[in-house]
Predict the structure.
Amino acid sequence: MSALIQAYTQKPKLNPVDRIIISHFDAHGVAFAAARHRVLTKIKNEQAIIVTRFPETGPQGLSDRSLLRLVEQCNVAPTKAIEMIDIPVDARNPEASIRTLIEMKERFAAPLLYYDHHETDVAFIPRLIEAGIISLVSDNITLAAALELLQDPAARELSIIGMVADRDRNVLRLASRQEVERLYLPLANKLDVLVRNPELARPVRASCAGALSDLAEELGHYGKTLLEQIHVDYPPYTLAREIEGQIVQEGTISLLVDWSNASPQHSAWIPKTLEALLQLRGKQIAICIAPGYDPRTRSVVGYDVRILKYWLAGEDVPTPEDVVKDLIAQKAISGQVVGHADYVSLRYSDLETARRVAEIVYRRIEGQQAYVTRLISDTYVAEAIRRDFTTILQKLTEILEQQKKMYEEYLELKRRQVELLERTQRHEYD
Protein backbone atom coordinates (compact mmCIF):
# COMPACT_ATOMS: atom_id res chain seq x y z
CA MET A 1 0.00 0.00 0.00
CA SER A 2 1.39 3.40 -0.97
CA ALA A 3 1.97 6.06 1.65
CA LEU A 4 -0.66 8.27 -0.02
CA ILE A 5 -3.33 5.56 0.05
CA GLN A 6 -2.45 4.73 3.63
CA ALA A 7 -2.81 8.39 4.61
CA TYR A 8 -6.26 8.53 3.07
CA THR A 9 -7.42 5.31 4.72
CA GLN A 10 -6.22 6.49 8.12
CA LYS A 11 -7.87 9.89 7.82
CA PRO A 12 -10.92 9.96 10.14
CA LYS A 13 -14.27 10.14 8.41
CA LEU A 14 -16.12 13.34 9.20
CA ASN A 15 -19.85 13.25 9.79
CA PRO A 16 -21.68 15.93 7.79
CA VAL A 17 -23.87 18.44 9.61
CA ASP A 18 -25.43 21.61 8.31
CA ARG A 19 -23.94 23.90 10.96
CA ILE A 20 -21.58 23.97 13.91
CA ILE A 21 -22.57 26.43 16.64
CA ILE A 22 -19.63 27.47 18.84
CA SER A 23 -20.55 29.57 21.86
CA HIS A 24 -19.01 31.09 24.95
CA PHE A 25 -19.23 28.85 28.01
CA ASP A 26 -21.16 31.30 30.22
CA ALA A 27 -24.94 31.36 30.70
CA HIS A 28 -25.40 34.07 28.09
CA GLY A 29 -23.50 32.20 25.38
CA VAL A 30 -25.12 28.86 26.23
CA ALA A 31 -28.65 30.33 26.19
CA PHE A 32 -28.11 32.02 22.81
CA ALA A 33 -26.55 28.85 21.37
CA ALA A 34 -29.47 26.76 22.67
CA ALA A 35 -31.97 29.16 21.15
CA ARG A 36 -30.15 29.12 17.80
CA HIS A 37 -29.96 25.32 17.87
CA ARG A 38 -33.72 25.20 18.43
CA VAL A 39 -34.41 27.50 15.48
CA LEU A 40 -32.17 25.48 13.18
CA THR A 41 -33.36 21.99 14.18
CA LYS A 42 -37.04 22.56 14.92
CA ILE A 43 -37.97 25.30 12.45
CA LYS A 44 -35.47 24.96 9.60
CA ASN A 45 -35.09 21.16 9.91
CA GLU A 46 -31.30 21.41 9.78
CA GLN A 47 -28.70 19.28 11.51
CA ALA A 48 -26.58 21.24 13.95
CA ILE A 49 -24.31 20.61 16.91
CA ILE A 50 -23.25 22.93 19.73
CA VAL A 51 -19.64 23.14 20.84
CA THR A 52 -19.16 24.94 24.16
CA ARG A 53 -16.76 24.09 26.96
CA PHE A 54 -14.68 25.85 29.61
CA PRO A 55 -12.06 27.13 28.96
CA GLU A 56 -11.67 26.37 25.24
CA THR A 57 -14.63 28.35 23.87
CA GLY A 58 -13.47 31.66 25.28
CA PRO A 59 -11.16 34.41 24.02
CA GLN A 60 -8.07 32.60 25.26
CA GLY A 61 -9.18 29.48 23.40
CA LEU A 62 -9.09 31.56 20.24
CA SER A 63 -5.60 32.89 20.78
CA ASP A 64 -4.04 29.57 21.88
CA ARG A 65 -5.94 27.48 19.23
CA SER A 66 -7.47 25.14 21.83
CA LEU A 67 -10.90 26.09 20.50
CA LEU A 68 -9.98 24.83 17.03
CA ARG A 69 -8.60 21.59 18.45
CA LEU A 70 -11.83 21.04 20.40
CA VAL A 71 -13.95 21.45 17.27
CA GLU A 72 -11.69 19.10 15.30
CA GLN A 73 -12.22 16.40 17.95
CA CYS A 74 -15.93 16.37 17.13
CA ASN A 75 -15.20 14.82 13.71
CA VAL A 76 -17.94 16.73 11.93
CA ALA A 77 -17.95 18.69 8.71
CA PRO A 78 -20.31 21.66 8.39
CA THR A 79 -21.89 21.90 4.94
CA LYS A 80 -23.47 25.34 5.38
CA ALA A 81 -21.64 27.39 8.01
CA ILE A 82 -19.80 27.69 11.29
CA GLU A 83 -21.51 30.12 13.67
CA MET A 84 -19.64 31.65 16.59
CA ILE A 85 -21.67 33.31 19.34
CA ASP A 86 -20.51 35.56 22.19
CA ILE A 87 -16.78 34.79 21.99
CA PRO A 88 -14.77 38.02 21.83
CA VAL A 89 -11.41 38.28 20.12
CA ASP A 90 -8.67 37.96 22.74
CA ALA A 91 -7.63 41.61 23.13
CA ARG A 92 -4.27 40.49 24.52
CA ASN A 93 -3.45 38.62 21.32
CA PRO A 94 -5.87 39.64 18.55
CA GLU A 95 -3.75 38.52 15.61
CA ALA A 96 -3.46 34.98 16.98
CA SER A 97 -7.22 34.92 17.55
CA ILE A 98 -7.97 36.01 14.01
CA ARG A 99 -5.50 33.49 12.61
CA THR A 100 -7.42 30.76 14.45
CA LEU A 101 -10.67 31.95 12.88
CA ILE A 102 -9.09 31.96 9.43
CA GLU A 103 -7.65 28.48 9.96
CA MET A 104 -11.03 27.19 11.10
CA LYS A 105 -12.76 28.64 8.04
CA GLU A 106 -10.15 27.10 5.73
CA ARG A 107 -9.98 23.80 7.64
CA PHE A 108 -13.72 23.14 7.18
CA ALA A 109 -14.11 25.01 3.87
CA ALA A 110 -17.26 26.67 5.19
CA PRO A 111 -18.34 30.28 5.79
CA LEU A 112 -17.62 31.50 9.30
CA LEU A 113 -20.28 33.76 10.83
CA TYR A 114 -19.11 35.72 13.86
CA TYR A 115 -21.73 37.16 16.26
CA ASP A 116 -20.61 39.16 19.29
CA HIS A 117 -21.65 42.11 21.45
CA HIS A 118 -18.41 43.08 23.22
CA GLU A 119 -17.26 46.62 22.50
CA THR A 120 -13.64 45.49 22.39
CA ASP A 121 -14.40 43.73 19.09
CA VAL A 122 -15.33 46.93 17.28
CA ALA A 123 -11.67 47.75 16.66
CA PHE A 124 -11.15 44.36 15.00
CA ILE A 125 -14.08 44.49 12.55
CA PRO A 126 -11.96 45.68 9.57
CA ARG A 127 -9.47 42.87 10.20
CA LEU A 128 -12.27 40.28 10.40
CA ILE A 129 -13.78 41.52 7.14
CA GLU A 130 -10.37 41.47 5.49
CA ALA A 131 -9.99 37.84 6.60
CA GLY A 132 -13.28 36.93 4.92
CA ILE A 133 -15.15 36.40 8.17
CA ILE A 134 -18.78 37.48 8.13
CA SER A 135 -19.06 39.45 11.36
CA LEU A 136 -21.81 41.21 13.26
CA VAL A 137 -20.74 43.10 16.36
CA SER A 138 -23.77 44.79 17.88
CA ASP A 139 -26.14 44.80 20.85
CA ASN A 140 -27.77 41.59 22.06
CA ILE A 141 -31.20 42.34 20.60
CA THR A 142 -29.70 42.92 17.15
CA LEU A 143 -27.76 39.66 17.50
CA ALA A 144 -30.91 37.80 18.59
CA ALA A 145 -32.77 39.14 15.56
CA ALA A 146 -29.92 38.22 13.18
CA LEU A 147 -29.83 34.70 14.65
CA GLU A 148 -33.63 34.48 14.16
CA LEU A 149 -34.19 33.89 17.88
CA LEU A 150 -37.14 36.26 18.18
CA GLN A 151 -39.34 34.42 15.68
CA ASP A 152 -39.95 31.35 17.84
CA PRO A 153 -41.56 31.89 21.29
CA ALA A 154 -39.35 29.33 23.08
CA ALA A 155 -36.17 30.61 21.42
CA ARG A 156 -37.20 34.16 22.29
CA GLU A 157 -37.54 33.17 25.96
CA LEU A 158 -34.08 31.59 25.91
CA SER A 159 -32.61 34.76 24.40
CA ILE A 160 -34.24 36.78 27.19
CA ILE A 161 -32.75 34.41 29.78
CA GLY A 162 -29.36 34.86 28.12
CA MET A 163 -29.61 38.65 28.23
CA VAL A 164 -30.69 38.57 31.86
CA ALA A 165 -27.75 36.27 32.68
CA ASP A 166 -25.53 38.89 31.06
CA ARG A 167 -27.33 41.62 33.06
CA ASP A 168 -28.17 43.53 29.89
CA ARG A 169 -30.87 46.09 30.69
CA ASN A 170 -31.79 46.22 26.98
CA VAL A 171 -33.83 43.12 27.80
CA LEU A 172 -36.54 45.55 28.98
CA ARG A 173 -37.28 46.07 25.28
CA LEU A 174 -38.41 42.44 25.17
CA ALA A 175 -40.01 42.01 28.60
CA SER A 176 -41.27 44.19 31.44
CA ARG A 177 -39.17 44.71 34.56
CA GLN A 178 -41.73 42.77 36.57
CA GLU A 179 -41.46 39.79 34.20
CA VAL A 180 -37.68 39.99 34.22
CA GLU A 181 -37.35 40.01 38.02
CA ARG A 182 -40.16 37.57 38.76
CA LEU A 183 -39.71 34.99 35.98
CA TYR A 184 -36.50 35.31 34.00
CA LEU A 185 -33.98 36.35 36.67
CA PRO A 186 -34.43 33.16 38.78
CA LEU A 187 -34.08 31.04 35.62
CA ALA A 188 -30.98 32.94 34.50
CA ASN A 189 -29.46 32.48 37.95
CA LYS A 190 -30.21 28.78 37.81
CA LEU A 191 -28.54 28.53 34.40
CA ASP A 192 -25.54 30.39 35.82
CA VAL A 193 -25.08 27.50 38.26
CA LEU A 194 -25.71 24.81 35.65
CA VAL A 195 -23.10 26.05 33.17
CA ARG A 196 -20.55 25.68 35.95
CA ASN A 197 -21.90 22.23 36.89
CA PRO A 198 -23.74 20.86 33.82
CA GLU A 199 -23.92 17.37 35.29
CA LEU A 200 -26.54 18.70 37.74
CA ALA A 201 -29.05 19.04 34.91
CA ARG A 202 -29.55 15.34 34.24
CA PRO A 203 -27.49 12.35 33.14
CA VAL A 204 -25.96 13.37 29.82
CA ARG A 205 -24.30 11.43 27.05
CA ALA A 206 -20.56 11.83 26.53
CA SER A 207 -20.31 14.07 23.47
CA CYS A 208 -17.17 15.34 21.79
CA ALA A 209 -17.36 18.68 23.58
CA GLY A 210 -18.63 17.39 26.91
CA ALA A 211 -21.57 17.84 29.24
CA LEU A 212 -22.00 21.59 28.70
CA SER A 213 -22.68 21.09 24.98
CA ASP A 214 -25.26 18.44 25.85
CA LEU A 215 -26.89 20.80 28.34
CA ALA A 216 -27.07 23.50 25.65
CA GLU A 217 -28.69 21.15 23.13
CA GLU A 218 -31.19 19.85 25.69
CA LEU A 219 -32.00 23.42 26.66
CA GLY A 220 -32.68 24.18 23.02
CA HIS A 221 -34.98 21.14 22.80
CA TYR A 222 -37.01 21.70 25.97
CA GLY A 223 -36.73 25.50 26.31
CA LYS A 224 -37.08 27.16 29.69
CA THR A 225 -39.16 24.16 30.87
CA LEU A 226 -35.87 22.32 31.45
CA LEU A 227 -34.73 25.02 33.86
CA GLU A 228 -38.09 25.12 35.62
CA GLN A 229 -37.93 21.38 36.34
CA ILE A 230 -34.40 21.36 37.75
CA HIS A 231 -33.71 22.26 41.37
CA VAL A 232 -30.32 23.78 42.10
CA ASP A 233 -29.12 26.03 44.88
CA TYR A 234 -28.01 29.49 43.80
CA PRO A 235 -25.11 30.34 46.15
CA PRO A 236 -25.54 34.16 46.08
CA TYR A 237 -28.97 33.86 47.74
CA THR A 238 -27.45 32.00 50.68
CA LEU A 239 -24.35 34.19 50.82
CA ALA A 240 -26.42 37.38 50.77
CA ARG A 241 -28.24 36.20 53.89
CA GLU A 242 -24.95 35.35 55.56
CA ILE A 243 -23.27 38.71 54.92
CA GLU A 244 -26.37 40.74 55.78
CA GLY A 245 -24.92 40.96 59.28
CA GLN A 246 -21.71 42.47 57.86
CA ILE A 247 -23.41 45.60 56.57
CA VAL A 248 -21.60 48.39 58.41
CA GLN A 249 -23.57 51.32 56.97
CA GLU A 250 -26.87 51.58 55.14
CA GLY A 251 -28.13 54.76 53.53
CA THR A 252 -30.95 55.92 51.32
CA ILE A 253 -29.77 54.20 48.14
CA SER A 254 -26.59 52.37 49.10
CA LEU A 255 -25.06 50.01 51.61
CA LEU A 256 -21.49 49.42 52.75
CA VAL A 257 -20.44 45.81 53.41
CA ASP A 258 -17.24 44.63 55.05
CA TRP A 259 -16.74 41.16 53.51
CA SER A 260 -13.01 41.13 54.10
CA ASN A 261 -13.25 37.52 55.33
CA ALA A 262 -14.68 36.16 52.06
CA SER A 263 -13.19 32.77 51.17
CA PRO A 264 -11.54 32.00 47.80
CA GLN A 265 -14.45 29.78 46.70
CA HIS A 266 -16.89 32.62 47.31
CA SER A 267 -14.78 35.19 45.48
CA ALA A 268 -16.25 34.39 42.05
CA TRP A 269 -19.77 34.94 43.42
CA ILE A 270 -19.13 38.39 44.95
CA PRO A 271 -20.85 40.50 42.23
CA LYS A 272 -23.95 38.29 42.11
CA THR A 273 -24.03 38.12 45.94
CA LEU A 274 -23.97 41.92 46.16
CA GLU A 275 -26.79 42.04 43.65
CA ALA A 276 -28.83 39.59 45.73
CA LEU A 277 -28.10 41.66 48.84
CA LEU A 278 -29.32 44.84 47.12
CA GLN A 279 -32.56 43.09 46.21
CA LEU A 280 -32.89 41.81 49.76
CA ARG A 281 -32.43 45.28 51.28
CA GLY A 282 -34.16 47.28 48.55
CA LYS A 283 -31.06 49.37 47.70
CA GLN A 284 -29.42 50.40 44.43
CA ILE A 285 -25.65 50.48 45.01
CA ALA A 286 -23.37 48.22 47.07
CA ILE A 287 -19.89 49.15 48.25
CA CYS A 288 -17.99 46.08 49.40
CA ILE A 289 -14.58 45.46 50.95
CA ALA A 290 -13.34 42.03 49.86
CA PRO A 291 -10.01 40.20 49.82
CA GLY A 292 -8.12 40.03 46.54
CA TYR A 293 -6.82 36.53 45.89
CA ASP A 294 -3.99 35.35 43.67
CA PRO A 295 -5.76 32.92 41.27
CA ARG A 296 -2.85 30.45 41.37
CA THR A 297 -1.87 30.39 45.04
CA ARG A 298 -5.22 31.53 46.47
CA SER A 299 -3.33 33.74 48.89
CA VAL A 300 -4.51 37.26 49.75
CA VAL A 301 -2.53 39.84 47.75
CA GLY A 302 -4.58 42.90 48.67
CA TYR A 303 -8.05 44.16 49.44
CA ASP A 304 -10.61 45.31 46.91
CA VAL A 305 -13.18 48.06 47.13
CA ARG A 306 -15.97 46.91 44.85
CA ILE A 307 -18.78 49.25 43.82
CA LEU A 308 -21.77 47.66 42.11
CA LYS A 309 -24.90 49.35 40.81
CA TYR A 310 -28.02 47.18 40.53
CA TRP A 311 -28.39 46.47 36.83
CA LEU A 312 -32.04 47.60 36.66
CA ALA A 313 -31.55 50.71 38.82
CA GLY A 314 -33.11 53.95 37.62
CA GLU A 315 -31.28 56.49 35.50
CA ASP A 316 -31.16 58.88 38.46
CA VAL A 317 -28.89 56.52 40.44
CA PRO A 318 -25.19 57.50 40.25
CA THR A 319 -22.90 55.42 38.06
CA PRO A 320 -19.96 53.91 40.02
CA GLU A 321 -17.43 54.84 37.34
CA ASP A 322 -18.45 58.50 37.56
CA VAL A 323 -18.37 58.51 41.36
CA VAL A 324 -14.80 57.18 41.57
CA LYS A 325 -13.17 58.65 38.46
CA ASP A 326 -10.36 60.18 40.49
CA LEU A 327 -9.70 56.88 42.31
CA ILE A 328 -9.71 54.99 39.01
CA ALA A 329 -7.13 57.41 37.61
CA GLN A 330 -4.88 56.78 40.59
CA LYS A 331 -5.13 52.99 40.31
CA ALA A 332 -5.04 52.74 36.51
CA ILE A 333 -1.32 53.52 36.51
CA SER A 334 -0.55 50.33 38.43
CA GLY A 335 -3.25 48.29 36.71
CA GLN A 336 -5.15 47.70 39.94
CA VAL A 337 -8.59 48.53 38.64
CA VAL A 338 -11.02 46.30 36.74
CA GLY A 339 -14.67 46.31 35.78
CA HIS A 340 -16.96 48.55 33.78
CA ALA A 341 -19.19 51.59 34.31
CA ASP A 342 -21.65 49.89 36.68
CA TYR A 343 -19.15 47.64 38.47
CA VAL A 344 -15.73 48.90 39.52
CA SER A 345 -13.12 47.09 41.62
CA LEU A 346 -10.14 48.97 43.07
CA ARG A 347 -7.32 47.06 44.78
CA TYR A 348 -5.38 48.36 47.81
CA SER A 349 -2.41 46.85 49.60
CA ASP A 350 -3.90 46.80 53.09
CA LEU A 351 -7.29 46.41 54.71
CA GLU A 352 -7.38 49.75 56.55
CA THR A 353 -6.78 51.73 53.35
CA ALA A 354 -9.52 49.78 51.61
CA ARG A 355 -11.93 50.48 54.46
CA ARG A 356 -11.09 54.18 54.39
CA VAL A 357 -11.65 54.40 50.63
CA ALA A 358 -14.92 52.46 50.90
CA GLU A 359 -16.15 54.95 53.50
CA ILE A 360 -15.30 57.86 51.18
CA VAL A 361 -17.19 56.22 48.30
CA TYR A 362 -20.20 55.54 50.52
CA ARG A 363 -20.31 59.18 51.66
CA ARG A 364 -20.08 60.42 48.10
CA ILE A 365 -22.97 58.26 46.97
CA GLU A 366 -25.12 59.20 49.93
CA GLY A 367 -24.41 62.90 49.36
CA GLN A 368 -22.54 63.36 52.64
CA GLN A 369 -19.43 64.39 50.71
CA ALA A 370 -19.43 66.54 47.60
CA TYR A 371 -18.52 64.81 44.37
CA VAL A 372 -20.74 66.57 41.83
CA THR A 373 -17.80 67.58 39.67
CA ARG A 374 -16.89 63.91 39.33
CA LEU A 375 -20.41 62.59 39.10
CA ILE A 376 -21.32 64.46 35.93
CA SER A 377 -19.32 63.59 32.84
CA ASP A 378 -17.79 66.28 30.61
CA THR A 379 -20.27 65.42 27.87
CA TYR A 380 -23.23 65.97 30.18
CA VAL A 381 -21.74 69.23 31.48
CA ALA A 382 -21.17 70.53 27.95
CA GLU A 383 -24.70 69.59 26.94
CA ALA A 384 -26.16 71.23 30.05
CA ILE A 385 -24.19 74.43 29.40
CA ARG A 386 -25.30 74.47 25.78
CA ARG A 387 -28.95 74.11 26.80
CA ASP A 388 -28.59 76.82 29.45
CA PHE A 389 -26.83 79.17 27.01
CA THR A 390 -29.55 78.62 24.42
CA THR A 391 -32.22 79.36 27.01
CA ILE A 392 -30.40 82.53 28.11
CA LEU A 393 -30.13 83.72 24.51
CA GLN A 394 -33.83 83.10 23.98
CA LYS A 395 -34.68 85.05 27.13
CA LEU A 396 -32.40 87.94 26.13
CA THR A 397 -33.99 88.02 22.68
CA GLU A 398 -37.44 88.14 24.25
CA ILE A 399 -36.34 90.96 26.59
CA LEU A 400 -34.85 92.96 23.71
CA GLU A 401 -37.99 92.51 21.66
CA GLN A 402 -40.09 93.64 24.60
CA GLN A 403 -37.83 96.65 25.20
CA LYS A 404 -37.98 97.54 21.52
CA LYS A 405 -41.74 97.39 21.59
CA MET A 406 -41.88 99.49 24.76
CA TYR A 407 -39.50 102.04 23.22
CA GLU A 408 -41.64 102.28 20.09
CA GLU A 409 -44.70 102.83 22.27
CA TYR A 410 -42.77 105.48 24.20
CA LEU A 411 -41.83 107.29 20.97
CA GLU A 412 -45.42 107.15 19.81
CA LEU A 413 -46.58 108.61 23.11
CA LYS A 414 -43.99 111.40 22.92
CA ARG A 415 -45.11 112.19 19.37
CA ARG A 416 -48.70 112.52 20.53
CA GLN A 417 -47.61 114.68 23.44
CA VAL A 418 -45.75 117.01 21.08
CA GLU A 419 -48.76 117.25 18.78
CA LEU A 420 -51.03 118.01 21.72
CA LEU A 421 -48.63 120.66 22.98
CA GLU A 422 -48.42 122.30 19.55
CA ARG A 423 -52.22 122.39 19.22
CA THR A 424 -52.52 123.87 22.70
CA GLN A 425 -49.95 126.55 21.95
CA ARG A 426 -51.69 127.53 18.68
CA HIS A 427 -55.02 127.72 20.50
CA GLU A 428 -53.55 130.07 23.12
CA TYR A 429 -51.95 132.23 20.42
CA ASP A 430 -55.23 132.55 18.59
About this structure: The chain has three domains: 12-229, 235-376, 379-430. The chain is about 50% helix and 15% strand.
